Amino acid sequence: MKPLILHGHHAGPNPYKINLILENLNLPYEEKFWVLGEDSKGVKGPEFLKINENGRVPALEDPNTGIVSWESQAVINYLLRVYDKSYTLCPGPDASEQDRVDYDKWTAFLITTFAPMMGQRNWYVHFNTIDNPDAKKRYEEQTLRCFGVLEGQLAKTGGKSILPSGFSAVDCHFWPWLRGYGLAQLDISAFEFCGRWIREIGKRPEVKRIDEFLAKAKES
Q1: Pairing between strand 59-62 and 4-8?
Q2: Average of pLDDT values for 67-96?
Q3: Mean pLDDT of the chain
Q4: How far apart are alpha carbons 27 and 150 in whole angstroms?
Q5: What is the C-alpha to C-alpha distance for residues 135 and 133, in angstroms, rounded to an integer?
Q6: Angle subtended at Cα 95 by Cα 92 and Cα 100, rounded to the nearest 5 degrees
Q7: CA-wise closest residue to 118 among 168, 174, 70
Q8: H/E segment holding residue 151
Q9: How far is CA 25 from CA 47, 87, 105, 116, 147, in A?
Q10: From CA 104, how far away is CA 159, in angstroms rounded?
């Protein structure tokens, strides 16, 4: 099997989701790192735009099938359809309709609500050229509200996994965003089960492998 090619960068949460899926499915892969900008190494440059017209990471090329995918949810869905034949990370054919709905709704919650709120919080804390206390406060409140929603779900498993059935692609979607609460300057001490989940997932061997790999790649 030829290695899949993951396109990412050294910062940002979304490519990390794909690392997690690839590691959990034991798929061989290589990662190509891009930078912000319009030059030959940039995500807005002509070379990368041939891969992803939207000029964002992650993107995935699969030389085994000829498929090119981008947007983290689309990439993950592709990998699960093609390579997760034993349904280790997603509901299988014997799953109940409620199990399928739960998988979909928590993934959608991350994609449409949690991640955008935290992303805006990070923008106004770190990157906006003009200090905007009202925007920082709004996105702090909204992100913490999202933590509160997730807290209730994680209480059902004691903070072990988002879905009661165990570790899944839903956890892969959430992990790189939740672990970034410190970067977003958020106090999540009130969310006991979110804290437990962050510590639990952080102990997983594939997380440690990815962290070591990304740290070495950043140094090179």
Answers
A1: antiparallel
A2: 97
A3: 96
A4: 30
A5: 6
A6: 90
A7: 174
A8: helix 133-154
A9: 29, 10, 23, 27, 28
A10: 19
CA distance 118 to 37: 23
| Cross-strand pairs, 207 | none
188-210: pLDDT as tens digits: 999 999 999 999 999 999 999 99
- In this prediction, residues 124-134 reach a mean pLDDT of 97
Token pair for 137: 């406060």
Q: What is the pTM of this model?
A: 0.96
- pLDDT-derived band at 10 (thresholds 50, 70, 90) equals confident
Other Cβ atoms closer than 10 A to 73: 16
CA 32, CA 101: separation in Å to the nearest integer? Answer: 34
Q: How far apart are CA 199 and CA 160, in angstroms?
A: 9
CB 87 within 8 A of CB 30: no
Token pair listed for 58: 């992650």
Instruction: Tell me the residue type at 62.
Output: D
What single string gives the DSSP state of each residue in 52-120? Answer: -TT--S-EEEETTTTEEEESHHHHHHHHHHHH-TT-SSS--TTS-HHHHHHHHHHHHHIIIIIHHHHHH
SS3 of 113-127: HHHHHHHHHHHHHHH
